[in-house]
Records
---
Amino acid sequence: MKRIVILASGSGSNAENIINYFKNSAVFKVVLVLSNKKDAKVLDRANRLGVSNGSFNRVDFSSSDTVLNILKENADYVILAGFLWKLPEAIVNAFPNKIINIHPALLPKYGGKGMYGMHVHEAVVANNEKESGITIHYVNENYDEGAIIFQESFEVLPTDTAEDVANKIHTLEYKNFPKVIEKVMLENG
Ligand code: GRF
């Protein structure tokens, strides 16, 4: 059994999709959902789906080993699904090639500090980009810079708003993220 722990900061629709994808698997299981926000909607989703969950603060995450130890005890893979804090080096180093993030743009474009959520899609529309897409990548200690595992793009129409782009992104994320996670776990063990 490979145990997945999801870190998420917000709504958690990707987290829910991943939990559902693996719910009947005999070999992969989402065992825990953790958030840096105690009122994040992702925790309500985890409760509803019967997945253990909890929240942590800055000290737990960055200046003590609290979260590191929870992850070491519970996770074979750590999945970042809309998680907004930069990972401390100790966590990155404890899980080489075992931490996977999804970014709602075609990295290396529209990555880095401040490029999250609607900011990404607003920038894509403001720059009249002809395409956008999703990037699934390993996590290293720099924002959005780990090795890319998977990308898929779509056409941005001249009439698309940032909300339209966000919707197209979510559709691609739901379709691909769980499958890519599964493939990585099958290939990397
Ligand atoms: C997703 O678009 C993800 O790519 C980005 O944040 C969004 C999270 O959405 N990093 P949700 O919380 O899974 O609904």
Note: The mean pLDDT is 96.
---
Amino acid sequence: MAKSPETEHPNKVFGWAARDKSGVLSPFNFSRRDNGENDVTVKILFCGVCHTDLHTIKNDWGYSYYPVVPGHEIVGIATKVGKNVTKFKEGDRVGVGVITGSCQSCESCDQDLENYCPQMSFTYNAIGADGTKNYGGYSDNIVVDQRFVLRFPEGLPSDSGAPLLCAGITVYSPMKYYGMTEEAGKHLGVAGLGGLGHVAVKIAKAFGLKVTVISSSPKKEEEAITQLGADSFLVTTDPQKMQAAIGTMDYIIDTVSAVHALYPLLGLLKVSGKLIALGLPEKPLELPMFPLVLGRKMVGGSDIGGMKETQEMLDFCAKHNITADIELIKMDEINSAMERLAKSDVKYRFVIDVANSLSPP
Ligand code: NAP
Ligand code: ZN
């Protein structure tokens, strides 16, 4: 008989899990492997709440494997390190992001692109290298191979820095890969001003881009300009402004989490412009061919980033004082936070104060 999540490993852990597609989270006792020779055990301090957590607990993508303990924006303290661990010592402040495993020998891994390794394993809702299930950061500790642990730079706050581990790298990587940072002053549209979108504005400004937020929420305009530093704001429901902005952008980063029309976004691009899709709506989007073909435009995608680039992004954010704007919540406030996230009602990332609010019953 298969062992229960609580008894299959020696290391007892407490967290919160969703049990079915209602997505309701509740206390959950489980276990993790003992710290191995290459592992770091992390006492979790803070964990960000990504929209991917919400998609997963609701089974939006059809492959949720319950119980699911979400959470992949983890900041904590290393409490144990294996004998082969050279990068970290006990007491170090560390981060864990979206992936915790890969084959470490394929072409992608050799190029520091573990995120595209065919055997990459996610921090939660996935099976780890030992064949047992991975559980995420809505819990008191996690055991991770050192390759997938990040040094958390001095000066970067643990709470508002946590969302960089997913939201930060997810927007940073395509800016570099698609050439947005090569020439200062290029015009970037950021579609969707949520967790990813608001960090995209800050990182893009630090790279010297001109940034326009493309949003469905008129009420976000003032803050986008005055607090986040966007150069302008476009409401998708204002046909006149959308019309006036046609053909003005070199790039668009699309972070919208729900099904939406690409046609108006593609129209905003200049000839040869690129739209980079980051959002993962539950159903496929329609891809209109005319604006692509007639304007030599391109649609691409991007999935988080490799470990080396994630470290580079954290160091970049520390240097430029970039953090997320967060609403700090207690663990038992997670269900109402998820309801608000579903309505895009968060400024702009919930972060769980795990160490101060997660207490076993
Ligand atoms: P989020 O905080 O909920 O932000 C998403 C934004 O999309 C909302 O704030 C809203 O912005 C807009 N939006 C939501 N519903 C909409 C609708 N029905 N129509 C138009 N706009 C809508 O989510 P997030 O954490 O930033 O994640 C965004 C998406 O990226 C999710 O699908 C997530 O799974 C995915 N993701 C991908 C990666 C990757 O590696 N590619 C990594 C992390 C997350 P406005 O109010 O401004 O319109
Ligand atoms: Zn995420």
Note: Residues 307-319 form the longest helix (13 residues).
